[in-house]
Structure formats: structure tokens, C-alpha cells
């Protein structure tokens, strides 16, 4: 354990478990969507609308997470978030109308926003950079399990897709119980580092930093690339590339698996290359992956493209978060992390909706081209961050 608190090992394990569970349900919707679409008689663009509803909920709570944590404490808001998401998952399992589905998706986003921002804020203070990568890698572990679990439940066990969300509900209630048990330790862990609260910048002051806009924009686009690829890959492979459902589900799992592997090995590579060079190489690899996916040169090339995108996009979220203190200064860290996750929520809300609309109007083959253009914009913003950092260092010399 190399985090700042020597007594946070158990909390780190619990935080990783929360990320695993979130990854399972987050990736499952892409595979279960075909069955949901048939049950509710909705079009493909409705998937984008569903993801957007959930992400708008995340946006609402991520933007207000700082005041919520300061007032109620991390343990309380984590328990509230888990309870809200558990109720939402159960509501999805019981839903009989599309309106109810949209409402519970928004509710799930509310809970997920509190959980994600709370854990990342805690990790930024108490966990090391390596642990930050492992924490985000845990989400990828869950994301790899999700499509396989749905495929097993629906195809192998021949059960209704709704049973998966009953399971998701039960697991969240178990996590809720674990947070009740450990709530005193979370409360003690919220004590600020020495002097951390003495020079806290206002939100307006943080917003005046050009760097925060570049970082937030990169966060938004990178998160959008990850989500669009993961959520639309199953429909794209089945309907555009004529691949059977079970094989497509396995391929989507491989996408999330490559993302997970990248996050777990990222610490070693970053130590040798440095953060800026590492993210630059990943941006280029992401473009290559999108090009391979768009080329339609056979099943194996499509799979390689998915794997490249997953491997390349994985480090952006943890590394941008870990690099925040050095880029904006200690006084702006809390605001900057909140703003970056708000931008990520915007990317999760807008980009899947736009991708779904384009796929419905121009065909599913537009998805890899959309991913390529978005990845190119991500590379451009990251290069702008690098350029600004060089200018700042030059002024200090």
C-alpha cells in the first residue's frame, strides 16, 4: 500500500469492488439492448436516449458533489448513491413502459454520479497514482464480466434479461451493507491533508484557468469515445457485420478486457515514458483502432480495432485525474476534479445520443467513423495541454 493513509487498505479494496460492480452494469446495457429494444418496441436511437438520461443524472450529482461531500461526508453519500442505484436497477427489472425505463435510468445516473465522484475525490487525496490506475482498472474488470454475464443469463440459461438487473440490485444492497459497517473509517479518512483547506480557490477562479477548459474538454471527448464504442459495438457487429449474438457479446467483452489490461499495466509503462508521451501514443493508437474498425476488412481486423481502441482510451481518465494537482495547483484541485467529471458526464450524455442519431439516419457503419473523428479531436486537445504546459515551464525558467 502506497497511498497517503496507512489504514486505507480495506477501503481501497472496497472502492475497487464498487468500481467492479459499476462496470458490470455499465457494460451490460450494450449487450442486453437487443432484448430491451424488442420488449419496448423502440428504435436504435432510444439506446442513446437511455444512456443520455442516465448520464444527465450523473451530471446533476457530479456538479454538486463537492458541497454534498462537505455537508454529509463520503460514507453517507456513498450509501445514498448505492441505495438509489439499487432501487433504479430493481425498477428497470420491473418496468412495463419506456417512460418508467427512462425515469429509472435517470435515477441510476443520480446515484452513480455521487458514487463515482465521491470515490475519485477520496482517491485523489488518499491513494497513489498507481492505485488510481488500479481503481479505474477495476471498472474494466466489471465491464469485461458484464457482457459475458448477460450472454450467460439470456442465451445459456434462457432466462429473461430482467433477471440480470435483479442480481445487480442484490449486489448493490450488499455493498450498501459494507459501507454501513465501514462508515466510521470513511469518516475518519475524510480528514484533509495538512493545510489542504487553507487556500481553497473559488469555482469562478478555477473556471478562469485556460488549462481547466482544455482538461475538461479532453475528459469529455475521451469518455465519449469509450462509451460510444462500448455501447454500440454489439449492435454494430450483429447488424452491420452480420456476426452472431454470442460471438459479438464475447467481442464486446474483449473490448472491455483490453481497456482493463491497459489500466493495470499503465503504471509500469508511464514510469518509463512519462504521462504526456504515454497519452500521446495512446491517442495515436486510438486513431489506428478506429481506422481498422471502419475498414471492414474481416472479423479479425474488426476485433483488433476494438481492442486497440479499448487499450488506448483506458489511461485517459485516471491519468488526467492524477495529473490535475500539477496542472492547476493545490488550491484548484477539488474544483478541477469536479469540473472534469462534470465534463465527462456531458460527454457521456451527448456523444452516445449523437452517435445513435447518426447511426439511425446514416447506418451503423457511421459509428467507427464517428469514433475516429472524436479520437482525433481528443488528440488535438491533449496536444494543446502539452503546448500550454511547455509555455508555462518556459516562463518559469
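^ C-alpha cells above, recovered residues below v
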Amino acid at each position: 500500500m502506497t497511498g497517503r493513509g496507512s489504514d486505507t487498505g480495506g477501503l481501497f479494496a472496497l472502492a475497487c469492488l464498487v468500481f467492479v460492480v459499476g462496470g458490470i452494469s455499465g457494460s451490460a446495457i450494450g449487450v442486453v439492448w437487443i432484448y430491451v429494444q424488442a420488449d419496448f418496441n423502440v428504435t436504435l436511437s432510444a439506446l442513446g436516449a437511455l444512456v443520455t438520461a442516465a448520464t444527465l443524472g450523473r451530471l446533476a450529482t457530479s456538479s454538486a458533489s463537492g458541497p454534498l461531500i462537505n455537508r454529509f461526508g463520503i460514507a453517507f453519500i456513498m450509501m445514498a448513491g448505492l441505495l438509489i442505484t439499487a432501487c433504479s436497477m430493481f425498477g428497470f427489472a420491473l418496468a412495463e413502459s419506456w417512460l418508467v425505463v427512462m425515469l429509472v435510468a435517470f435515477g441510476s445516473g443520480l446515484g452513480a454520479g455521487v458514487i463515482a465522484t465521491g470515490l475519485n475525490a477520496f482517491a485523489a487525496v488518499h491513494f497513489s497514482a498507481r492505485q488510481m490506475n488500479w481503481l479505474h482498472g477495476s471498472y474494466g474488470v466489471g465491464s469485461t464480466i458484464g457482457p459475458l454475464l448477460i450472454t450467460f443469463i439470456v442465451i445459456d440459461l434462457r432466462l429473461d434479461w430482467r433477471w440480470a438487473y435483479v442480481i445487480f440490485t442484490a449486489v448493490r444492497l450488499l455493498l450498501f451493507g459494507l459501507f454501513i459497517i465501514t462508515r466510521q473509517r470513511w469518516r475518519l479518512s475524510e480528514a484533509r491533508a495538512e493545510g489542504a483547506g487553507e487556500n481553497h480557490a473559488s469555482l469562478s477562479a478555477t473556471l478562469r484557468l485556460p488549462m481547466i477548459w482544455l482538461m475538461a474538454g479532453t475528459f469529455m471527448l475521451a469518455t465519449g469515445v469509450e462509451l460510444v464504442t462500448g455501447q454500440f459495438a454489439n449492435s454494430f457487429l450483429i447488424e452491420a457485420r452480420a456476426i452472431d449474438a454470442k460471438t459479438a457479446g464475447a467481442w464486446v467483452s474483449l473490448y472491455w478486457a483490453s481497456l482493463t489490461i491497459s489500466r493495470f499495466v499503465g503504471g509500469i509503462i508511464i514510469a518509463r515514458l512519462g504521462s504526456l508521451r504515454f497519452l500521446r501514443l495512446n491517442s495515436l493508437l486510438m486513431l489506428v483502432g478506429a481506422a481498422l474498425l471502419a475498414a471492414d476488412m474481416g472479423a479479425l481486423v474488426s476485433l483488433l480495432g476494438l481492442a486497440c481502441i479499448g487499450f488506448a482510451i483506458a489511461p485517459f481518465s485516471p491519468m488526467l485525474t492524477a495529473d490535475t494537482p500539477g496542472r492547476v495547483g493545490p488550491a484548484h484541485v477539488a474544483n478541477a476534479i469536479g469540473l472534469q467529471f462534470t465534463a465527462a458526464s456531458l460527454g457521456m450524455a451527448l456523444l452516445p445520443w449523437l452517435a445513435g442519431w447518426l447511426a439511425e439516419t446514416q447506418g451503423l457503419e457511421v459509428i467507427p467513423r464517428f469514433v475516429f473523428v472524436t479520437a482525433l479531436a481528443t488528440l488535438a486537445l491533449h496536444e494543446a495541454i502539452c503546448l500550454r504546459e511547455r509555455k508555462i515551464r518556459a516562463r518559469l525558467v
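Residues 1-6, 188-198 have pLDDT under 50 and may be disordered.
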